[in-house]
Amino acid sequence: MNQEKIGKFIASCRKEQKLTQAALAEKLGITDRAVSKWETGRNLPDASIMPELCDLLNINISELFSGERIDMDSYKEKSDELLLEMKKQEELKNKKLLSLEMVIGYMASITFMVMIFVASFIEMPIWTRVLLIAVGSTAFIVGLINALKIEHDAGYYECPECKERYVPSMKAVVMAPHIGTARKMKCPYCGNKAYHKKVLTK
Fold first, then answer.
1. Which residues have CB under 8 Å from 121's CB, separation 6+?
2. Contact in structure between 114 and 131 (CB atoms under 8 Å)
3. CA angle 43-44-46, nearest 5°?
4. How confident is the model at residue 47 (pLDDT cuts 50, 70, 90)?
5. Most buried among 13, 48, 91, 175, by the most CB within 10 A?
6. Beta strands 165-166; 178-179: pairing state
7. CATH code, 3-70
8. Rounded to two decimals, what is the model's pTM?
């Protein structure tokens, strides 16, 4: 999605409706600064206000995402292009999140092992050893929790039996045995309990 193109389109449609940035912002219950950020391509509107924005600008969601008016002859083609682009964007975002999960997991584990090693093999007062172990354990637990949350939020799990893709509960992810990002869970669709692999898009 070309944010700059979308921003220019929003500005053009707003002017067609004879609305100032302030007037549009007031109707949407947001600040005119937010509208300015859309129109300069720095941000996209939140999904929650897109339907109302489209109504006010007399456009549809597909036109908003494509940044141009779509005639009925090319509507299906444009919609398919947008769906494909959105799927690519979701895949890229989830890929980045899962890479971040790996970095956090490794950093937390390395910090924990270094602290334990230092506390175990270097001469120091007992209170310093306890402090190092406590700091290392805390870093490990916080890192693990954040890594699990990222894994839960990024993408979906696919059942090997029925091929349905779903987002499990956080508890299911935490409690499930795993090999990499594949986790042994019960499918909410077919009830199959197996290793469900992580996938980036639905």
1. none
2. no
3. 120
4. confident
5. 13
6. unpaired
7. 1.10.260.40
8. 0.62
